[in-house]
Amino acid sequence: MMKENQELQCKSRxxxxxxxxxxxxxxxxxxxxxxxxxxxxLDAGLVVNFVFAWHTEKxxxxxxxxxxxxxxxxxxxxxxxxxxxxxxxxxxxxxxxTYEKMLQRNEPxxxxxxxxxxxxxxxxxxLDGRTLAALGFVFLLFLAFVLFSLRHxxxxxxxxxxxxxxxxxxxxxxxxxxxAGQFQQEGNLLKKAYDRTAYWIPYSQxxxxxxxxxxxxxxxxxxxxxxxxxxxxxQEKIDELKVTYQQLADEINAERTAVLPETNVIYIMxxxxxxxxxxxxxDLQSDPIPFTRALMGxxxxxxxxxxxxxxxxxxIEFEALTGFSMEPFAANITTPYTQFLSSQDDFPSxxxxxxxxxxxxxxxxxxxxxxxxxxxxxxxxxxxxxxxxDTMTHTDKLDTNPYISDAAAYAEIVAxxxxxxxxxxxxxxTMQNHTPYQNKYSVIPSAAETGIxxxxxxxxxxxxxxxxxxxxxLLAALQEWDEPTVVVFWGxxxxxxxxxxxxxxxTIQNMHETPMFIYSNTVEVQKDLGVTSPIYFLPExxxxxxxxxxxxxxxxxxxxxxxxxxEKTLYVNGDTGGYVSSREGLSEQARSLLADYDLIQYDTTxxxxxxxxxGFFQMND
Length: 621
Description:
By secondary structure, this protein is α/β, with parallel strands linked by helices. It has helices spanning about 1-40, 45-55, 55-75, 80-105, 120-125, 130-150, 165-180, 190-195, 205-210, 215-220, 235-255, 290-295, 315-320, 335-340, 350-355, 375-380, 405-420, 445-450, 455-480, 500-505, 535-545, 550-560, 590-605, 610-615, and strands spanning about 265-270, 300-305, 360-365, 385-390, 425-430, 485-490, 515-520, 525-530, 565, 570, 580. The protein folds into two domains: about 1-220, no CATH class; about 270-325 and about 330-520, Alkaline Phosphatase, subunit A, CATH 3.40.720.10. The strands form two sheets. Strands 4-3-5-1-6-7-2-8 form an eight-stranded mixed beta sheet, sandwiched between helices. It is globular. Keywords: Cell membrane, Membrane, Transferase, Transmembrane, Transmembrane helix.
């Protein structure tokens, strides 16, 4: 009899345990649906299609991730009801936060946003009454569940996990979470599982979450280790480099009169601005950028080696603003803005360098704030202000082009200069020339005029003409301006509008070189920069303005002499002027300089930031 009772109890316990597992799975599934729902503006149809039609495999993988969280909570508290309640509570709050952030800023919740939980009072002050009411309702539901559970705990038995089972599950799930936390590390198996069907969109996390789901998008935005540790990395080595390049900086500074740049500095990264006359296989009959071409003959000018083709704007911007290249980063680092920079509190940059020199620093992007997490990244880089489409004064558009025009963006620059009493650093990322190009304008250059049959390409040529005209107007205004001003202008990358056939007719180098120049309204100095990289812009500005340099800028100048431009698989040999495909094709001195550069980049992006502590990025008093 006793044996039969034991068997019945065992079977009953087994059935109850199975029910607990099912309840956990059901809770996870519902929480997952809820997260998708709040992410997609409460559109149930999108959720159903995502789960059952479009992205079922990714949804199942993400459900497994959430189930691991549920098991971890169950092992932690030892009670399935509490585990389910905590899942519902955390999912409810996270979903509300996602919905509110999408509503306010058109972007989802990132892992870095969880840091804001320490600022709960500040967050509550930001919420409107409706959201506060919803948040209060979630807490009331949770409180009701707790009271109900306490009252009916005896009437409705639950199976308590033994301590051995709890420890085992806790250790196993903790290890799983630790591994998931390395999502952006090369070879991560969870990332590979998603990669089977995922189309990651690094430039827009709104679209990234939409395409891959909340959980996958959240994992994608976990911080990643940007670089592997160099063998000789140490504080002593970084201090040694400080001495070496400070000596070089002192030699350079002995020939320069200005301690700080006594000029406004304007960076203009023009969307998809390229020179079609440089393309093989394109029989273009007219010049879409005559003003720019003429100006390049009387200024510091050359070709920018762009890391991207058809995209990658933020990477070129990152290089220009930080002096750090994409080339040394690990293969899994495809977009620093979204993978690690936005999680930093601060970061040495052109912005912080000029701000310390007394400049007022302003970023302008005539679009929204969500692209490449610019709002967070501009704060990290040290900008005083960020103007975008909703806060700009000048927002005119051309014809049927959906984007704010270059002329309007340039008018914003002039307005800032006129309103400011300080020296200004203004960084503009334009939008006028952005894809799509089909039917962008009602009037475009004719096929007879251009020699081009494609209307799409001719729409792009019209973009270039408008850009060229707007640039002429801006520089004419600056020429009359009574403050010294330097403009660094470059195209971020080629558009993909010309198609694969034309791409195949050109060298890879051709398709990664765009026009760039540095203009001054006080001096007319011509210098052929050849092919250059964005990391070298500030040293060129300092040379043009006769300003002194830091140890870091001295390193860049030494590197530029031996490696004038470089990206992964594309290196310009400073000794020969030709391209090579790897570092091995460069001179021993060039490789040595790159090794020093790697150490500083690793130290700043991944390491202990000894270079910031020893003054590598600051002027030497």
